[in-house]
Amino acid sequence: MENVHLAVEDEDLYSGYNDFNSTFFTEELENDIGFQQALRTSQGRRPLMTAKLPGTAIGGRPLASSFGSRVPLASSAGRPVTGAVQEGAARPMTSIRAAGYTSTMMRGSTFDTLGQHRGPAPPLEGKNEDGPEEKIKIMEKKVNDLIEESCMAYSSGASQLALEKAKEARRKEQALVRQREQSGTADHINLDLTYSVLLNLANQYEHNEMYPEALNTYQVIVKNKMFNNPGRLKVNMGNIYFQQKNYPKAIKFYRMALDQISNAHKEMRIKIMQNIGVVFLRMGQYSDAITSFEHIMRESPNITTGYNLVLCNYATGDREGMKKAFQMLISVPLGIDDEDKYIPATDDSSTNMVIDAIKNDKLYQMERDKKAQAEKYIMTTAKLIAPAIETSFASGFDWCVDMVKASQYVELANDLEINKAITYLRQKDFNQAVETLKTFEKKDSRVKSVAATNLSFIYFLEKDYDQADRYADLAMNANRYNPAALVNKGNTVFVKQDYEKAAEFFKEALKNDSSCTEGLYNLGLTYKRLNRLEDALDCFLKLNAILRNSDQVMCQIADLYEQLGDLQQAIEWLMQVISVTPTDPHILAKLGKLHNDEGEKSQALHYYSESFRYFPSNINVITWLGAYYLDTQFCENAIQYFERATLIQPTQVKWQLMVASCYRRSGNYQKALETYQNIHRKFPDNVECLRFLVRLSTDMGLKEVQDYATKLKKAEKTKEIQEQTAATAPEESAAAAKTFHFLLPMSLMRAAAQRNLMHTMWTRWGLLWRDQKQEQRESWKKTSLMKILETTFCQSRWICSVL
């Protein structure tokens, strides 16, 4: 209706229409149906008009051609043909109004083709967002945005947020479907959008380990026949059953998916068969797993499948199968170009720039990771099957080395030889390990450096520091940038107590490899020996950033904080150690000591008790616990700890005295008396025991009190003599040694037997010297040694015969 223009009442629609000769108006001849039909006839005559033309609503109009002739022709219904007008009326030219003509245009009026006199164009009409179709499109866009946000959240590690977005997308999609049904456009439901929403929701359920919900969502997709290829999602369902360790159902769904995937999708079928083989492997059905893996290795071999095939044959003990599988593994093509392409070979700067750009790009990193994985699998399988494929470990390893040398992994042969030596080390066959490693001394520098490094380590463990130092120098000469060789060299210097030089070697190792944890740890220990505690703490803090859960590193940090006087920091680091190794009794005892130093007795009691629970033989812990309960007047609790100490050190009388003291303090005098009597029988000269026996006997009115008093006086006198002797013993022993050395005749050193006799005489002489009085010692100094020996050892015939 916007193209229909109503005329004003006083406007003559046909004025000026025939003011020109229509004979020369030829522009519309191309659209004149009658003229074109006349041209197509054989005689060139215009055909007669029929009496009926459809599509008109007004009758009685004459038919006019482009040449101006007007032939009135009415239809049988009294209607003129389309375009006919009444006689004498001018026809409006509405068909050329867009070109600037109007029905009111008179002769001499201005021709305005561009319509510049009409004024500016009206503004564009905005979209009507209130319409149902527009609302549906907006809702679809919101659903797509939620799916995208869910995927992005999962990729960033926010699994819970991804699940919430997926659920919201599902709710909005269901509302969208209901709106379609209410508006009567259910046939236009976006099935692709529904499929995307359900698939994303199922994936997010799976990622959040909500396996029943994920399986239900996958079932909704699989049972809907309107979706394309829903059978592939049975692979996902099989994966969920695999995660749940429901292996029979996993195999069932994998096989269902395999049946619904055509042979055109070869890679997909191979991956599903690989999953089936892995499930058989987990179930222990190695024969079925071998069948699946062998089929894959024939159709589309890959490193992972070859590795699994070797493992299955090893599990079945099939020697020939292991050899065959290993040969298939090392023959798998990696599809990686030669690394020489990354080496600049020309002086072309543009080419070198391209090489520098691709030298460490993601593709090169992927190739490097793939190659590293292949080498790891080959090394692991070789070490695994070497003892099993032949009668001896050495011959089996030699076979593996020969196979690798004949393959594309020829550079791994030397590494296998070194691993052979390391295996000898693990078997504690050091001689074979040394012989194997010594064979590399004449090979290329890289292998030579690795072999010398291992030899240096072996000799260092055997405490042959000279050989360790020699091979460390050899490894460094072969490869100065070998961090392990530098660490070994630093260790050999460390044991010689040249700590400054050792620190230099450890620093150089870290300069060559910043991730060398051994060098960093040893550097920290070196700084501790140099009393550079701040530098040592810095080293161990850096190491803790690399080895987050290393209890040794955290213990070193705690020890350094304790030496620096920051006990609170030491306690915090030891608490981290306890979080890693909660049953370490020494760490618990250390925590107890630090809390005790801080005055926190209750915390100290807790950690000491925990340490005693895990290791009840630490005498220091037992001593602290017993003393704590004595101080707090809980003597009954202290008895068990001192009795434990008595079992650990039965020859130490103090623990038994502490047990008796606990009984005495708790008021159990009878038990205390019995304990003291037992101690007296074992240690009759113990003065403290006799004192308490006298005291208890007096308090209890026992008749043995006089006997104990007599023994006490004798024991005290003996103790006094021993203390005086001990006070003068160092000076007298030195004088005796001087006199003995001066008087000793040289004839006693003429033979080995005489030298052995020297030790016996020296011991006896010292005992005699100690027991004699001062007057006798002075006379001995004036007498010859031979005479003293003859008078002293006259009963010892064997001594006299030797003399």
TrEMBL record:
Keywords: TPR repeat
Renumbered ranges of TPR repeats: 231-264, 270-303, 483-516, 551-584, 585-618, 619-652, 653-686
Residue span of region Disordered: 108-133
Record-linked PROSITE patterns: TPR (PS50005)
SUPFAM superfamilies, A to Z: HCP-like, TPR-like
Pfam families associated with the record: TPR_12 (PF13424), TPR_16 (PF13432), TPR_6 (PF13174), TPR_8 (PF13181)
Listed SMART domains: TPR
Protein name per UniProt: Intraflagellar transport 88 homolog
Lineage: Eukaryota, Metazoa, Chordata, Craniata, Vertebrata
